[in-house]
Specification:
Layout lengths: L4 E7 L12 E7 L8 E9 L4 H4 L20 E8 L9 E4 L6 E4 L5 E3 L15 H14 L6 E4 L7 H10 L3 E6 L2 H10 L4 E4 L5 H8 L4 E5 L5 H6 L3 E9 L19 H11 L2 E4 L7 H16 L7 E5 L4 H9 L6 E5 L3
Parallel strand pairs: 8-9, 8-11, 9-10, 11-12, 12-13, 14-15
Antiparallel strand pairs: 1-2, 3-4, 3-6, 3-15, 4-5, 5-7
Helix pairs in contact: 2-3, 2-8
Amino acid sequence: MSETQNLRVVLASRPIGRPKTSDFRFEHAPIPQPGDGQLLLETQYLSLDPYMRWRISDAKSYAPPIGIGEVIVGGTVARVKTSRHPDWREGDIVLAESGWQQYALSDGSNLRRLDPAIAPPSTALGVLGMPGFTAYGGLLEIGQPKPGETVVVAAASGAVGSVVGQIARIKGARAVGIAGGPEKCAFVKNELGFDAVVDHQAPDFAQKLAEACPDGIDVYFENVSGHVWDAVLPLLNDFARVPVCGLIANYNDGPEGGNGPDRLPRTMREILARSITLRGFLVYNFTAARHDEFQREAAGWINEGKLLWREDVVEGLERAPEAFIGLLEGRNFGKLVVRLAK
């Protein structure tokens, strides 16, 4: 491909149920040229995250849907290739929101300068980025774990869940992870140091979860829903707190929901009977001061070896649609990023 061309991925059609690679289209366009006060960003890493499934749907959500023919949204780590902005220079590494494309223009707002000497730049998309802050804010502001309590988190080997469990342990709570398959479970237990882990693919999953939580569950960090929620709900203690971060088991359902069981009556009954707090949230709900606090604490925990992470790196923008579909099916192992440039 000519160096004058910008490879980008746009939405070709709205997915019905499970997304297909045909719902995405690759386009080549001229590389944009920055004007006064602008800079040209060259994407190094692209973040793939479950929330993107909502953005390619036209169902009512917290943000407007991506239009047909528009570039798919996404967080990126980028290098400033050309700058005509006084505050930025060529070669700066930045955190941006330039989406699924190789090049993008920016006016310099909403960029954060990254220092590769402090941490690998890709961590700004994971443990030190939006997923890490989601875990930090959701757990500490909504879950409010206390020493000795039991915190359970679904998708415990993923970008958010892995951080939730580690922070729970740092705060003196007991961390129980739920993951899919022996390899992910071993990682959560042996490398991340959770107190216990349960495989949600096991036929006796609900029984194993109950055995791992003999004193019940005080905080459940919800990333999945579905049959995982069915097993968690009977174990919630009085005054349990449930931060609802994601519902990945339902993301491919249509706007009216899937054909599975109606969980609402049972859930509402238990919320009432046991005074359970169940609160959905978005990372944007948390303040800038909370974000600064997260950056300081997370960097310190990493330096002390208390906060670990794992990345699942896919090479090349051409593989982004297939990797994103796999993310919704749990095929990734760790924070999923696409590397566009060495």
